[in-house]
Specification:
- The protein is α/β, with parallel strands linked by helices.
- The protein contains 11 helices and 5 strands.
- It has helices spanning 19-30, 44-47, 70-75, 95-99, 114-125, 133-144, 159-169, 174-181, 185-198, 204-213, 220-228, and strands spanning 10-15, 35-41, 58-62, 82-87, 105-108.
- Strands 2-1-3-4-5 form a 5-stranded parallel β-sheet.
- Helix 7 (159-169) crosses helix 9 (185-198) and helix 8 packs across helix 9.
């Protein structure tokens, strides 16, 4: 059962694997008058299991740090709570993944301040959907494009899988990818296996070819070619 909260105040729970980000978010939350109390976890999965975190009304989590889809993660949070996903950039190839997230709002790390956080929380409390302008623009652009061919459902990759796929297409080995992303080789192997399954590809070469063919890996040159054509 959730504890009583001062009227007009919001209980917030957040997570981040990065200590620097956690400290920064803690300082921001202390400067937001609408925040009555908050709980900080070191991993997103703790938000769904920690009794202190589960008393929150709003959950703030970096989408890049989720080890599962946003839908799976959000489904394990307390009923009636709201989720604010923190975005570290909005690359074109991740727009579909972000759009599929059943979150109640989105906030860009690049625009993060006490003011923008306070505004997002107030909008959530008013049942509005806070969203960065860049994401709004890209969603409108996506909506204006021709839908995928019938019988070919869209492929949704997590931001982490998208990073790995991009390096895989560049020809990097699991060891090189692990070094580049500062992950364990075991984690990279698991991510590559997931990517191959989602792309229905038997090997890395096939996956790389499909990624390029389906436009799953965004290249600046691709955009320039599209403008020129």
């Amino acid at each position: 059962m959730r504890q009583k909260q001062e009227p007009g105040k919001i209980r917030v729970a957040l997570s981040s694997e990065n200590e620097f980000r956690r400290l920064g978010l803690e300082q921001l939350l202390r400067r937001v008058p609408i925040v009555g109390s908050f709980t900080i976890c070191t991993a997103a999965r703790e938000l769904a299991t920690s009794p202190a975190a589960r008393s929150a009304e709003v959950f703030l989590v970096p989408i890049k740090e989720l080890d599962e889809t946003p839908s799976q993660f959000i489904s394990r949070l307390p009923e009636g709570s709201k989720t604010l996903l923190l975005l570290n950039g909005i690359p074109d190839e991740c727009v579909a993944y972000i759009a599929a997230a059943p979150a109640h709002g989105f906030l860009s790390e690049h625009d993060l301040s006490a003011e923008t956080l306070a505004d997002a929380l107030r909008r959530l409390a008013a049942d509005e959907v806070p969203m960065p302008q860049e994401l709004t623009r890209k969603l409108l652009e996506r909506a204006s494009k021709r839908p995928a061919a019938a019988g070919q459902p869209p492929i949704y990759l997590t931001p982490r899988e998208q990073e790995v796929l991009t390096l895989l297409v560049d020809g990097l080995s699991n060891k090189q990818i692990a070094s580049r992303l500062r992950l364990s080789q075991h984690s990279v192997k698991r991510l590559v296996t997931s990517i191959l399954a989602k792309l229905n590809s038997p090997n890395r070469t096939s996956a790389a070819a499909k990624a390029l063919r389906e436009g799953l890996v965004f290249r600046p040159a691709d955009r320039d070619a599209g403008i020129a054509s």
